[in-house]
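Weekly puzzle thread! Below is a chain. First person to post its structure in token form gets bragging rights.
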Amino acid sequence: MSWRTYAATVVLGLLVGCSSDAPPASSPLRATDGRTYDFPADLRGKVVVASFIYTHCPDICRMTIGHLLDLWERVGGDTNVVFATVTLDPARDTIAALHQYAEVWGLPTERWLLLTGTIADVERVLSAFGVVARKSYTERLPSGEEVYFIDHTDAVFLLDRDGIVRDRREGSSLDVADYARLVQRYAAQR
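Winning reply:
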């Protein structure tokens, strides 16, 4: 796929994924807290900071998680706010892998959900948010392990208490102070 085709696909996905005042469609995803959530529907009533990463990502996801940790420092004490991070790679990002990722990054998993599921369920959530994820060329090591990367949309979404997407920004270049004010504004609304 050429970079122009990829860029057009990403733009189209964003337009489709964010063009409605209806909540995104939900699918069942398992979380590191041991529960299964119909995501994002089961989080209605809370303001949700939703992001999409994969644990083997060498760059963009690391920047996004770094910004989100800074955001957590500013708004994480508000019990009306939940962070939800959905894997882009459910084949490798098992619950155990997500637990390890949370431990390495110091993610507060009591209200920061790391979510995975079947490939089909994750793909439904990605589609509902207009997130594009495309697996690169895969190389198989002599051990049988697959090595690949995922080209993906760099996005963080803010959902209001009704589950409606109110904001979408690039996670890797997130202005944390500005975004914290926006999250706090929605969290203060009843």
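Puzzle host: Confirmed. Bonus trivia for everyone else. The mean pLDDT is 88.
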